[in-house]
Every structure is written in C-alpha cells, then in structure tokens.
C-alpha cells in the first residue's frame, strides 16, 4: 500500500491572491500571477511541504467573477473538481477589498461541502491588514488566518493550521483518537537492575497479565494497572525481557537490543530505564537510553537500589556527569532514586512518568514558538557560512509525541550541527521540556 499524499486546494474568487499563495506555499514560482481579474490560467498543481509534511497543492484558476448569490457554472465546475480531491480547502479572501457578495456565495457553497475549510484572509500585510482580515469572520467559516502571500507574512501560522486540518498521519493500528487511553510504558534495563522487583512494587497484587499483544513479538505480554493517581497504565512488556533473563542473564541484553526489547520500546510512550545505583550508568545503559531517544520516546531514569548505596551524593554526581557528557540529547532527563525492594521512592516514579509524558505530548502554539525563535536568534544569530548568512524565518510545530519543530529559512542545509543543538537546547529550556527527545528540522524556503 502506497502512502497517499493529502491534497490541499486553494479556492476563492479571482484576484484575491490564490496564485501568489500557491507560489508561496509551493516555494517556487510556478503559477503565473496576473492582476487582471479572470486571467486565464490552467489549473496548477505542485508538491509542497507544509509544516514538515508533503502535500499536493491545487490552485484553481481562471474563474470568472460570479454574479452575486450565485456561482457561475465555470467557477463551480472548476472549484468542485478541486474540492472533490481536496482533504483541506483553503478559501482565500482579499482582506483589503473586504468581503464581497461573491465571497459570501462561495462561502455558502463551501460550508455545504463538509470538508475542512481554512479561511485565509490574504493581503493582510502590515498592522492594518490584520484588522481588516477580521472582517472575514462574518463568513461563518471560523477564524480567518491573516496572511500576506506576497510578503510572506503569516505563512507559518497557515502552515500550522493546515497541518492541524490534515488527516492524521497513518499510524500502526490506526488508532487516532486520544481519549482516556492508557499510558504505554516500558521498563527496561540491564539484567538484575531490578525491573521485575519494580514492576511488582508498582503493580502489586492486582497485576494482570492480559496475554499476547497483536503487533508485538510472540513473547510479548501487556500488564495493565491503574496507578495511584487513577490513571490507566499499560506496560508494554516482553516476556523475554524478564523471564528469559532467569535462564541466561548474559544473553538478555543482546535480545533486548534486537527484537522483543525494541518492540516494547517502540510501542511505549515513556521508557523507564532502571539502573543499579551501585553500578551507575554504563555503556549498555547508555545504549538503551540512546535507542529510546532515537525512537522518540520520553525517558525517566529509575535509580534503583538506592538503599544499598553508601555515598549517595557521590553516586548522584557520577550519574549527572555521565548524563551531561554522554546523553546530551536527553538533557534534564528526570532521575528518581528509589528502592524497588523496600518500596521507598517508588511512589515518585509514576508522577515523574506522567509529567514527562505530558511534555512529550505538548504542543507549543505558533505565536509562542516564533517569539522563542526570535529571541534565540537574537541571543545567538545563525552563523555566516561561506560569506552568506543563514536566515531562519519562522518555525512551526507540526506534531508532538515527540515534540517536532520545523524551522523555515534560507540556506538551511548549511546550518551547522552546533547551531542546531543550540536551538534544541534553547527550545528545551524555553519550554521546560527536560528528558524529552526533541526533533528539529529545517526547511528551505525561497
Ligand atoms: P488569483 O487570481 O486569486 O490567483 O490572484 P493572484 O495571485 O493572481 O493575485 C492577484 C493580485 O493580488 C496580484 O496583483 C498580486 O500581486 C496581488 N497580491 C497577491 N497577494 C497579495 C498580498 O499578500 N498583498 C497584496 N497587497 N497583494 C497581493
Ligand atoms: P531484573 O533482572 O532487572 O528484573 O532484576 P530483579 O528484579 O530480578 O532484581 C535483581 C536482584 O536485585 C534481586 O535479587 C532483587 O532482590 C534485587 N533488588 C531489586 N531491587 C532492589 C533494591 O531496590 N535494593 C536492593 N538492595 N536490591 C534490589
């Protein structure tokens, strides 16, 4: 099955700036822009990237001015065809000209189409433009999104709005709804770190084996329970990870690192990495943590066997050093010292898991995000590469789980790794997201 690229159709009466917007979104000059109303053009089509996702853009062009309250046959035919194919329609109005009877007729027709429609108030450049755009509220198609296709203003917010309106990206299992779904947790770590003991401490008597999970490996089981906050938890566990360890401890990590363990890690939302505090964090632990980060999972470290540690301050310092030097991609990862054996500190684990899960799910609004980008650039401007400055114009956050930011600009392919890291850390600090993998991508605009 090939993955279908969603279609975004640009609709509206002539001269509102559809072609200009099309070019702006497509990132290149494709359509012919002409300010003669009704200039004949072919329908234009382009592939574009909107907030990090590929989309197919349709520009409906060559429409005649419709008589008030009706839509002329040609207008309807062309728009209908595009709308049929569209997953999302961008209905463009001219904020400067104001709402015309033709806009109203168009809006009435669109409202009946039962497709997601975004109302785009174009030509809203400058301070006045934004206010003029508000007039479009009267169309009853929701909040107008003020943009200036010509000057490239408001495009980030438009990207964001399109991303929100697009059908959800296909996911394994097809579950799109969030609702009260249990938090998916994986407890991982080296053999003998105390995973089984911790699980028993968490779940206690109510522990329930719900049998093989479809989609996981043959050995996988799920343990479901309700934590002390009343939240549902589903432990994505693999029988192999724990039970087989009893037989051959040495082989366990290998097995974890391939196959079953990876499946559990990928299926989970939050990974609890259990460490033996007496031994600290070694290469194997780091490998697991890095894998979790690469898979985009949120991580909490359970610093177990705390009861058996003599110099706690030194143990903690050692761990912090390793985390700082060897796991910068999970900066600030929460660490919960505990004793799974005595139960001490175990009660702090689930609140930490819930907190990091919430951050992992968090969406940052476009306004806030762009204020951050401006401030970050000001503090530390993008470097000059080969005599030319990299320009970063705006950012969007097309998705969470893990937080994913797309920064648009020019010469973005040349952004050095240390500047990318600077932005990630700055974002992490600004929005207080410790322990969460953060994805930062760059996209070139014209
Ligand atoms: P279409 O007929 O809807 O495709 O509109 P065009 O894209 O051909 O644009 C019509 C006219 O509006 C052209 O003169 C554009 O330069 C102008 N235009 C497009 N976008 C903007 C904008 O954001 N601000 C201003 N002031 N003019 C714009
Ligand atoms: P697993 O292989 O990671 O599942 O580890 P287990 O849960 O089987 O624990 C391995 C050993 O460590 C057992 O002997 C446990 O009793 C012991 N253990 C687990 N948690 C603690 C703890 O918090 N403190 C101490 N002192 N020992 C622990």
Automatic annotation (TrEMBL):
InterPro entries named in the record: AAA+_ATPase (IPR003593), G_ENGA (IPR031166), GTP-bd (IPR006073), GTPase_Der (IPR016484), KH_dom-like (IPR032859), KH_dom-like_a/b (IPR015946), P-loop_NTPase (IPR027417), Small_GTP-bd (IPR005225)
Q: Which GO terms describe its biological process?
A: ribosome biogenesis
Report if keyword Nucleotide-binding is assigned.
Answer: yes
Residue stretches making up the EngA-type G domain? 6-170, 183-361
Question: Which key words are in the record?
Answer: GTP-binding, Nucleotide-binding, Repeat, Ribosome biogenesis
The protein's superkingdom reads Bacteria
**Keyword Repressor belongs to the record:** no
Which Gene3D superfamilies does its entry note? 3.30.300.20, P-loop containing nucleotide triphosphate hydrolases (3.40.50.300)
- The residues listed in the UniProt record as binding GTP 2, with positions renumbered to this chain, are 189-196, 237-241, 304-307
Q: What SMART domains does this protein map onto?
A: AAA
Protein residues bound to GTP 1: 12-19, 59-63, 122-125
Recall the GO molecular function terms of this protein's record. Answer: GTP binding
What CDD domains does this protein map onto?
EngA1, EngA2
What functional role does this protein have?
Answer: GTPase that plays an essential role in the late steps of ribosome biogenesis.
| Family from the record | Belongs to the TRAFAC class TrmE-Era-EngA-EngB-Septin-like GTPase superfamily. EngA (Der) GTPase family.
Q: How does it assemble?
A: Associates with the 50S ribosomal subunit.
State what protein this is by name: GTPase Der
Recorded source organism is Caldovatus sediminis
What gene name does this entry carry? der
């Amino acid at each position: 099955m090939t993955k279908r690229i969603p279609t975004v159709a640009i609709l509206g009466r002539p001269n509102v700036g559809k072609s200009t917007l099309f070019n702006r979104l497509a990132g290149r000059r494709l359509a012919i822009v002409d300010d003669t109303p009704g200039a004949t053009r072919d329908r234009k089509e382009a592939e574009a990237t909107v907030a990090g996702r590929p989309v197919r853009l349709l520009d409906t062009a060559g429409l005649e001015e419709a008589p008030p309250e009706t839509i002329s046959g040609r207008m309807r035919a062309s728009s209908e065809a595009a709308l049929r194919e569209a997953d999302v329609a961008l209905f463009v109005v001219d904020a400067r000209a104001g709402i015309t009877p033709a806009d109203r007729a168009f809006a009435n027709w669109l409202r009946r189409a039962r497709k997601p429609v975004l109302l785009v108030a174009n030509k809203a450049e400058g301070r006045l433009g934004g206010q003029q755009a508000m007039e479009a509220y009267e169309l009853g198609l929701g909040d107008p999104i003020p943009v200036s296709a010509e000057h490239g203003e408001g495009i980030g917010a438009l990207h964001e709005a399109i991303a929100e309106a697009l059908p959800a990206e296909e996911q394994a299992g097809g579950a799109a709804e969030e609702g009260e779904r249990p938090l998916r947790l994986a407890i991982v770590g080296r053999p003998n770190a105390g995973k089984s003991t911790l699980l028993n401490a968490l779940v206690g008597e109510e522990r329930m084996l719900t049998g093989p999970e479809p989609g996981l490996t043959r050995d996988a089981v799920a343990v479901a329970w309700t934590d002390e906050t009343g939240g549902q938890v589903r432990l994505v566990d693999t029988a192999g990870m724990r039970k087989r360890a009893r037989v051959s401890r040495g082989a366990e990590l290998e097995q974890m690192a391939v196959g079953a363990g990876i499946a559990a890690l990928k299926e989970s939302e939050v990974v609890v990495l259990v460490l033996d505090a007496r031994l600290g964090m070694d290469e194997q632990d780091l490998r697991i943590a890095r894998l979790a980060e690469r898979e985009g999972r949120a991580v909490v470290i359970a610093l177990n066997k705390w009861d058996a540690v003599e110099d706690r301050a030194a143990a903690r310092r050692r761990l912090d050093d390793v985390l700082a030097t060897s796991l910068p991609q999970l900066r600030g990862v929460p660490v919960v010292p505990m004793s799974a054996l005595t139960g001490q500190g175990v009660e702090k684990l689930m609140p930490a898991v819930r907190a990091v899960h919430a951050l992992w799910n968090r969406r940052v609004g476009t306004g806030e995000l762009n204020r951050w980008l401006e401030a970050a650039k000001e503090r530390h401007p993008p470097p000059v590469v080969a005599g030319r400055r990299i320009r970063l114009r705006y950012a969007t956050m097309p998705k969470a789980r893990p937080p994913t930011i797309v920064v648009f600009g020019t010469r973005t392919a040349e952004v050095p790794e240390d500047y990318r890291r600077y932005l990630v850390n700055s974002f992490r600090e600004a929005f207080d997201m410790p322990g969460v993998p953060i994805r930062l991508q760059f996209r070139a605009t014209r």
